[in-house]
Here is the input.
Amino acid sequence: MLLIIVLGLVGNIATIFNLFQKEHRRKTITGLMINLASANFLICICGYPIAVSAVGKETSLLNQNRALCGWIAFSSACCGFAAIFSLTFMSVQTYRGVTRLRLKGKASSSSTKTSFFLIALVWILSFVIAAPPFFGWNRFVPMETGGSCQPDWLSQSVKDILYLAFLVCGGFFIPLCVIFYSNFMIYR
Here is the structure.
């Protein structure tokens, strides 16, 4: 786990540094690529160190501290969904660029406003999917290993099951369908 943290921190910092170089600044998806690396960097800072510190302890810190458990689950989920949505919007931007190139014979350009809008949308969507357990729609519980926390996947409550369906559809299934569709349309 320590190796993953170190490689994640170094790799994502190097990626961000590289993407700020002059030759990448005008590319359409550079902002989303920086956002993806930033989300992965934040997971390495917010989630993994707690998991490492919990390994080897008899009683999990997360079982004793519900606020910490909620923070770890929320930050990991929010950053994870930000990475998924960044990849989703990158595939849509690539599809739009290829389509414009085919139709107009020139590459598309993306304004800074569009990039900031998409990045803001990524984090808003991530928050909307990750935050409901703080407002009573499901709850965050420690995993059996005690190294991290997660939504309560075992709850039989209808509202909890509805949240889990919302999480799976909005956070995984719909982005996956958009990515598949965008890539299918590029390669057809």
